């Protein structure tokens, strides 16, 4: 499912459900953004395997911290922020 398949209203509903612990809603949100997140990680890290690994870390972190996301935030901003921090940690660990 791509981002175009879920409009902002549906995304906010999915995000609210995910915050409440709905795994299916969380999975739908992640799938809507997975391709873009993977490309983002690839651009930051320069390695496809590292990007996939960091993407999985991003998904796990997002699930663990789902209750902390602000209700007014969009899933896209929330997920990309987590991915960016995970990429920066990966890059920092390489040094």
Please explain how this structure is put together.
- With 95 residues, the protein is mainly α.
- The protein is built from four helices and no strands.
- The protein has helices spanning 8-19, 23-45, 48-64, 75-94.
- The N and C termini lie far apart (36 Å).
- The model has no long low-confidence stretch (mean pLDDT 90).
Give me a quick take on this structure.
This protein is mainly alpha-helical and about 100 residues long.
Give the oligomeric state of the chains in this entry, treating copies of one chain as homo and distinct chains as hetero: single chain
Give the structural class. Answer: mainly alpha
Topology order in helix (H) and strand (E) letters:
HHHH
- N- and C-termini, Cα separation: 36 Å
Percent of residues in beta strands = under 5%
Tally the helices. 4
Radius of gyration, in angstroms, nearest whole number: 13 Å
Report mean pLDDT, rounded to a whole number: 90
Portion of residues within helices: over 70%
The backbone outline, from C-alpha atoms, is elongated
Uncertain spans: none
For the largest beta-sheet, the strand count, sense and barrel status come to: none
Number of strands: 0
